[in-house]
What does this fold into?
Amino acid sequence: MIRSCAFLTAALLTFGLGDGARAADEVPDLFAPEITTTATAAGWYLRGDVGYTGWTGDEGADYTVYDAGGAATGRGGFDDSRFSHPVSYGLGVGYQFNDMFRADVTAETFRDRFNSNTDFGGPCVAGAAAAACGSRSSAIYRGVGILANGYVDLGTVVGLTPYIGAGVGATQLRWGGVSTTAYCADGEVNCVGGGSGRYDGRNSWRFTYALMAGVSYDVSERIKLDVGYRYSDIAGGDMFGAALDGGGRIRGDDDGFSRHEIRAGLRISLW
It folds into this structure.
């Protein structure tokens, strides 16, 4: 009798412990992070972006002087050229092909100022013979760019989608008039080979390409917040041109722009 009770007790304990272990296995871990992926449907989207060019490459500008016959008589560079850091604004329309690939066409605009000093190297007429002659120049420039872009989305985890992309297109750079004021190192105003004036700015279309990387966040099923980095390179071109006394001309060219931008915007799905 005692042996039967002991056997029965052991069996009950065994089943009880087994059920307890299974119950413990079924208790969810409340502290484990929830990791999900989000499927993306194909369709059209609109986008709007704001960018800030925090730093640029080694941009510069040069000028060439021609005589009445068109022969170059002198060349020089704008010393200490300073191109400001423009803010850009853009709009675009695109298409999401699947969870991985999308493409869009974007248009953007930016505006800012160019400032520079130029050392002509000649002496001042009204000052000491050793005094250097130079000029201070400034101008407003504007750009309107159009890019065709392609992106690879690298998978969505808890609403975040990292991506890489590239774009190619053209930028119309519009230079305003370049104002120049001559000066002498000793404070006089007249310089040999220098002068004050305003040169007419030039407009030109430049080849442009861009490389992008960033991450988007699913604000809702149809709205994504996009934050990323973009490197863009705008080719050099005409800057200004003007006639000089005696029938000659002067022409300026810029070396283009290498821009490093931090950008933020929204993408809104239309499906």
In short: Confidence is low (pLDDT under 50) at residues 1-18, 20-24, 30-37.
